[in-house]
Amino acid sequence: MKSDDGFLEEPTGELPVVSAADSRVTISGATMAGDLADSPASADPTTSLPHWTEAPTGQVPIVVAREAAAPIDPWAAIPAPAWREGEADWVAHEDQFDASLLHADATPEDGWNIVAPEEEAVAVLDETPRPEPRREYRTRRNLLANPLAGRATRASSRSVSTATMTGLALGALVVIIFLLGTWFVFGLILVVLVMASAEVYAGFRSVGAQPATILGLVATAVLLVSVYNQGPSAAAFVLVLLLIVGFLWYLNAARHVDVVDGLGLTFFVVVWVGVLGSFAIALISPVTFADRHGLAYLLGVMILTVANDSGALFTGRTFGRRPLNKVLSPNKTIEGLVGGTLVTILVGFAIVPLISPWTLPHALVFAVVLSVVVPMGDLFESMLKRSIGVKDLGTSLPGHGGLIDRIDGLLFALPCGYYLAHVLQMH
């Protein structure tokens, strides 16, 4: 407190006593708080924020780039951030962000495509999205546990009695042709292999593939003629020529196709049917064996192959219980494999040695080897048919399917017979 002379006095430590009657302290110039209770403070509705319990308005502040005045220093060239202030700021940037996404009922599909961020990024960087490259008429498929899943399979028309009658008729025809001589056998082999190739090409075309069918059939015929004149080594030249001509074939195709599938399948059929079947031509070629011994060796291989197929068929139907391969061929059984082997060895012991110049040891060796490779050829074709979803690749032979269904095991037996004859020095 100030004294009368203007100097501050030392505090005495005494407190003023306020009576109960005068307990209210009055500040001069102030208004009593109780007088303001009935007059609440007014708020400007245009500037006040909504209550927190109300729904959002969807307005989101955003930094808007504005042009700055001429820079005084280098740092002044960077524009300062500015908040949206007027309607023009909202309209100018309305396409940059959809504020309705903040609404509780909004879904991602209503705005940005956040399901495929990679595609959205490409669309942002490039105004015109580039289409994904696609290969036309593609036929390759991913491997499935069941290759026939989802495919319509061609029903089989096989009958055991019909197959037996057809087989006996074919056997008699083949024996007659073999008695007529080499050229007749050559013509038979040429016709059978070309027709079998045509059946395989038709099977591939039925599932949408685009092999060069005519080119493949011509290549097969040329390969057989070349092997007859020059031996098996001529097959390499024909395959190289097929690659070059096949390239030109697809280069001038009327429409774009999957060249890998088209040319690959063309080669596949020529190698499977043409090259493997050409060893029948190599056996009867005068370049390989003289004195028509090749005809006898080819006939012996064919007899052993038929014995294996027939023995496996009838033994499997009678005693078969355990499948050899459930996926590829559920009807082929282990019992059928054993029965086919026993029948093949029996025929090699009793029948084949009667054909000159076959001997018993040679016939037995052939019987054992062919008992292994003939079922492999049968399973190989089954794998191919399962992959394209058909039971038989043709219907030319009643009860058997097509020609390729009849010679599938023989195609694997022919090269083995050719090289085995050379190893055993059967000249």
Structural descriptors:
single chain; 427 residues; mainly alpha; two-stranded antiparallel ribbon; 2% strand
How is this structure best described in words?
This protein is mainly α and 427 residues long. Helices cover 51% and strands 2% of the residues. Among the domains are: 159-181 and 292-427, no CATH class; 183-289, no CATH class. The chain is built from eleven helices and two strands, in the order ααααααααββααα. A two-stranded antiparallel sheet has the order 1-2. The longest helix is centred in the last third of the chain and has 29 residues, at 360-388.
Strand order of the largest sheet: 1-2
Strand content: under 5%
Q: From the alpha carbons, calculate the radius of gyration and give it in angstroms.
A: 46 Å
Q: State the low-pLDDT regions, or none.
A: 108-115, 135-157
Query: Average pLDDT value?
Result: 77
How far apart are the first and last residues' alpha carbons, in Å?
144 Å
The assigned structural class equals mainly alpha
SSE run: HHHHHHHHEEHHH
Level of helix content? 40-55%
| DSSP strand count | 2
Described by the principal axes of the CA atoms, the overall outline is elongated
The major sheet is characterized as: 2 strands, antiparallel
Count the DSSP helices: 11
Oligomer: single chain
Brief overview:
With 427 residues, this protein is mainly alpha-helical.
Helix-strand layout with pairing:
Blueprint: H1 87-92, H2 117-125, H3 160-180, H4 182-205, H5 213-230, H6 234-251, H7 259-284, H8 293-319, E1 323-325, E2 329-333, H9 334-350, H10 360-388, H11 403-423
